[in-house]
Structures are given as C-alpha cells and as structure tokens.
Write a structure and sequence with these properties.
single chain; alpha/beta; Rossmann fold
C-alpha cells in the first residue's frame, strides 16, 4: 500500500494487514483522488473509519490543511500514529481514538466543519445513511463540501436533503459515491 500522488508519492503506508480492516485498493484510491483533486488543497478533512490512515494521508500528500483520523480500533490508531510520525505530517493531523458516534458528537459540540469527509465504514454494517443524516442535521459539512463514500451492498440514494450525488463509480463489487453539499 502506497501513497499514490502528491508530496509523499510512492512512500509505503504501514497497516495493510490490520485485522478487521480492508485498505482501499490503490486503483480505487487513485480514481477517487482524481475525482476530488481540485478540492483537496487547503481543505479540512475527516477520515472517519481511518484504518491505516491511507485516505487521510493521501489528502495530506495533496496539500490538505488538516485531517482528523478517527478509528475505534487501538491497533489502527497506533498504525496511523506511526505513519504520521514516519511521514512527519503531525502538524496536519489529529488522531482520535473514538467510535464514529462519539467522534461525530465531538465535532458537533466543537463546531468543527469539514470540506471533505471520507466514509469507508465496515461494509456489513450499512452505516453511511445514518452518518449522512447526522452530518446534515448537525451542519458538519461546509457549503460545497463533499462526502466521499466507499461501499459494496448498501443502497444509497442520489440525494439526502442538501447533499446530491456528483460522482458514482463501480470497481467490481466496490462502489464510490461522492455527494456535494448544495446548502
């Protein structure tokens, strides 16, 4: 697993073997970042189910201002911390050892909004609609901000209140759907 583009391009990311995670394949990550490349620079991002931190690290490599990495798995948090130290990107990263509900409540209570939110939850749990509802209800996404979803079987709508689909791609059984906040 490697950083695909930007200042950290070709550097190895640790954590592709963490039990209970499935890293985003390089081909999918490359395509995903090509779709949002104009939005990453100077953005504040959330990598909500961080795993190894691959998506958030890719965002930092492409000049994101700040990325919040969230995971409830202690091993994931340790790997994310190690990757951040290795890449010397600590000033652009905040790591939270929270489950997704606690993290979302933390952001709501601290009035933190995001330009980009990466949602790659465990596929079998079908959490994306619940999370999108919370994001909308609590104004966690800036105007024209984007939610990037990776999923397999979950049935996602083309719009949720002020969020509408702008990109929808399939890569075998994996799917990417990107919503923009039209608020």
């Amino acid at each position: 697993m490697r950083v695909i583009s930007g200042s950290l391009r070709s550097r190895a990311i640790k954590g592709d073997n963490i039990k209970g995670t499935r890293p985003t394949m390089d081909k999918i990550k490359e395509s995903l970042f090509a779709m949002i490349q104009d939005d990453v620079r100077d953005s504040i991002c959330l990598d909500l189910f961080a795993g190894s931190g691959s998506l958030g690290i890719e965002a930092i490599s492409n000049e994101a201002k700040l990325v919040y990495f969230v995971d409830k798995n202690k091993e994931c948090i340790e790997v994310v911390d190690d990757n951040i130290r290795t890449f010397e990107i600590g000033k652009q990263a905040k790591v939270l050892f929270y489950d997704y509900r606690k993290a979302l409540t933390y952001f709501k209570n601290n009035n933190i909004q995001f330009d980009l939110i990466f949602l790659d939850p465990p596929y079998s749990e079908n959490l994306i609609e619940e999370i999108i509802s919370f994001i909308n209800k609590n104004n966690l996404l800036v105007s024209k901000g984007k939610v990037i979803c990776e999923y397999t079987t979950e049935q996602l709508k083309d719009s949720y209140d002020n969020l509408t689909t702008i990109k929808d791609r399939s890569y075998g059984d994996k799917k990417i759907k990107i919503y923009v906040n039209n608020k």
